[in-house]
Amino acid sequence: MTTGHRITVERSGLHVRVVRDGQVLAESDRPLLLRETGCPDRYYIPPEDVRLDLLTPSGTRTYCPFKGTASYWSVPGAADLVWAYPDPKPDVAGIKDHLCFYDVEVT
Description:
Blueprint: E1 7-11, E2 16-20, E3 23-28, E4 32-36, E5 42-45, E6 56-64, E7 68-75, E8 78-84, E9 99-101, E10 105-106
Antiparallel strand pairs: 1-4, 2-3, 2-10, 4-5, 5-9, 6-7, 7-8, 8-9
């Protein structure tokens, strides 16, 4: 990793809920918390805790030199709201296939 750049992934004991337009998209008591230098904390949710039937795959892909290539999904009215790393870099291997949302509620 680049000097001064740090990423940590840890289990979070918090409850994470994702709601958009009154619809629950995900709810989990076992998210992973990813902290990355210069970025907001992000919760990665196991696919079993996500309403995958409400997500539509997007053609969008982005590359992060620290995490790898992300794939995206959309929901009605919100393009590319969700992403995951199907083949993450070794330092963040724990987030493999977990989904991350731009906005989550944490309790």
